[in-house]
Amino acid sequence: MDMKKRITLELRNRSPAEIAELVLDNSRSADGEVDGLTDEFTELEFLSMVNVGLTSLTKLPSLPKLRKLELSDNNLSGSLEMLSEKCPNLTYLNLSGNKIKELSTVEALQHLKSLQSLDLFNCEITSLEDYRESVFELLPQVTYLDGFDQEDNEAPDSEADDEGEDGEDGAGPTGVYDDEEDEDEDDE
């Protein structure tokens, strides 16, 4: 499905200004560009365009409230300077699985003053010598690179997920006892 059609479907008869989250994963972009997204999405805080075939961000509209942007598994190799112009309040940016090879490409993110988390996993740039140190030096505002801080501590999102799993484990035995009681009743 092409990106324009997908946006129309995701709107579900709402106006673009009512949308805070938009997931366009696996839709197809026309000519490798952002297609169908407009400046009318004034309240958008989360945008996901994973695996949509993007090669450029030049047609990205102005999204002043956007905080989280998922762009993994595309063909982006540049045009990242568009992000600081169009999405100045980004705190989270996932560019994993793109064609980013050089530090100079990432340098364009210096103007994203609120950026805290950057993911470049599975990009060629990660094979550069001193990759992590260089990116942290280039982007001092970034706390987490590829899910870890400079001291290799995991980003809190991952830890929060782990705590949730522990809670579910704790609830597990209750379910087991209930099942046993049900079995006992069946036996009688």
CATH class of the largest domain: Alpha Beta
CATH-defined architecture of the largest domain: Alpha-Beta Horseshoe
Low-confidence stretches: 158-185
Q: What is the number of independent domains? A: 2
Summing up helix and strand content along with how strands pair, one would put the structural category as alpha/beta
Main sheet, how many strands, which sense, barrel? 6 strands, parallel
Model description:
- 31% of the residues lie in helices and 9% in strands.
- The protein has 5 helices and 6 strands.
- The protein has 2 domains: 3-154, Alpha-Beta Horseshoe (Leucine-rich repeat, LRR (right-handed beta-alpha superhelix)), CATH 3.80.10.10; 156-188.
- Residues 158-185 have low confidence and may be disordered.
- It has helices spanning 3-11, 81-86, 103-106, 131-138, 156-187, and strands at 21-23, 46-48, 68-70, 92-94, 117-119, 144-145.
- The protein is globular and about 50 Å long.
- This is Acidic leucine-rich nuclear phosphoprotein 32 family member.
- Pfam families: LRR_9.
